Amino acid sequence: MNLLIEVDTTNGQPPWRQVHDQLRALITSSTLAAGTRLPTVRQLARDLGVSAGTVARAYRELETAGMLSTAGRRGTVVAEITEEYTPAELTALARDFVAAARRIGVDRADALSAVTAAWRAGAD
């Protein structure tokens, strides 16, 4: 599987967080569907040029958040996303949005306007 994940060692964000945030975005956008098997920790680490510990931490954090599941010989798979959420998950989603907005140069006012517009559009 070729995941569209990149690690930028010059952006100041820890590599494990970059892997975590990008995987979270792929899962929440349904680009990675429930049941999708992810590469092994070692394989993804090799593909990204990072340590296995970096990928292991990202996987572990996502498993704790209920987004990944490790099932023995089946490996690590994307978990079924439920409609329920915790405040921590909502905060993580907001953090992901803020990080993405900052990466493309959006300021706070424009980001909040985009959220408000999206919220209104979804209220149909």
UniProtKB/TrEMBL annotation:
Signal sequence coordinates: none
Classification via InterPro entries: Tscrpt_reg_HTH_GntR, WH-like_DNA-bd_sf, WH_DNA-bd_sf
Residue ranges occupied by any HTH gntR-type domain in the UniProt entry: 13-81
Top-level taxonomic group: Bacteria
SUPFAM superfamilies the UniProt entry points to: Winged helix' DNA-binding domain
Molecular functions per Gene Ontology: DNA binding; DNA-binding transcription factor activity
UniProt KW keywords: DNA-binding, Transcription, Transcription regulation
Gene3D superfamilies, per database record: Winged helix-like DNA-binding domain superfamily/Winged helix DNA-binding domain (1.10.10.10)
Protein known as: DNA-binding transcriptional regulator YhcF, GntR family
Organism taxonomic ancestry: Bacteria, Bacillati, Actinomycetota, Actinomycetes, Pseudonocardiales
